Amino acid sequence: MAYLRNAWYAAGWPDEIDEDTLLGRRILDEPVVMYRTSDGKAVAIGDRCPHRFAPLHLGRHVGDAIQCGYHGLEFGADGKCRLNPHGGGHLPNTSVPTYPLAEKHGILWIWMGDAKQADETLISDAFSFVADNKRAHVKGYLHVKANYMLLVDNLMDLSHGLYLHRGSLATQEMQENFEPVTRVDGDIVYSEREQPNIAPPALWVPSLPPGTDRVDYFSHNEWHKPSNVIHPVGCRMLGKAEGEDGGVSSRSAHLFTPETATTSHYFYSNSRNYKVGNPDTDAHVRGILARVFGSEDRPMIEAQQLLIGEADLMALRPLILPSDKAAVLVRRKLTQMIAQEEQGEEVMVRHPSNASASA
Ligand code: FES
Ligand SMILES: [Fe+2]
């Protein structure tokens, strides 16, 4: 499957790897192992030993290297084989791939394309709220047996909330004035919904001032390439600004990373600026997220994937509804980016000197 390779994908949470961990994860259909070198730097190398293809993450962390758990070859953070216990001192000329790995905004980001283009400033500061210690955070991970774009679709078309999450995130009344506005700013696609003067959805009621029966509800989504979505959502008190007079809102990062063509990593981080440092609210939010994503979204999306099979959704000519506008725009933009990247690679292969001269 074709992926956008020259882009930063979420690879994990920084606290998933400590000095002892070897974290194996398949990303864009490539086996990757992440670990920390002795100076604490997070690094990523190929997770397939070139000898008999054992996963390196089943081995041992030895200094700044990984010792294969099968027959003991050792590979450093530069991917090179640095020790062969069987060769009488002979070092085979072999290595595993290396991948740029950045730790920024409380997220581990991996670059699966041309390492020379892996510029950390391309990681948008729009995700800085994930590491804002003035906010409360609840984060998690789900493995989903579905293509990552079905997950992006899910976020960019929140009309599903009226049906799949009725009772927790949506009310009957919301159906009557559900009119998201889609707009594009450069490489970012926005889908924004304002629903003034409605009853608050059940999720928000415990956090609002007692007796609040009408709110100005808002729910926005913004897609950042390749497959990450920021979701600010909440209830403003009638006619007030966000957070004023007891209004409550949250901001979430939904980071979707292809594992294979039909399976994905789903990293989510929900942050809020109310009831910070309140473990009961953390537990309440954690329970809701587990139910909404794990028990409502995930089963539906995995069931979709089973019916779609190996095909590309758009090749099956799905019915397009007005509420699909943002999701279709995202798919179109990403498809264009992948095509441009592949054309660029062709130019590089055919005319390497021209390509570098024009870069
Ligand atoms: S499979 Fe890794 S050393 Fe043999
Ligand atoms: Fe959902």
Automatic annotation (TrEMBL):
Keyword terms, alphabetized: 2Fe-2S, Iron, Iron-sulfur, Metal-binding, Oxidoreductase
Molecular function per GO: 2 iron, 2 sulfur cluster binding; metal ion binding; oxidoreductase activity
InterPro entries associated with the record: Cholesterol_7-desaturase (IPR050584), Rieske_2Fe-2S (IPR017941), Rieske_2Fe-2S_sf (IPR036922), VanA_C_cat (IPR044043)
Residues of the Rieske domain: 8-110
Domain of life: Bacteria
Keyword Cytoplasm found: no
Annotated protein name in UniProt: Rieske domain-containing protein
Species lineage: Bacteria, Pseudomonadati, Pseudomonadota, Alphaproteobacteria, Sphingomonadales
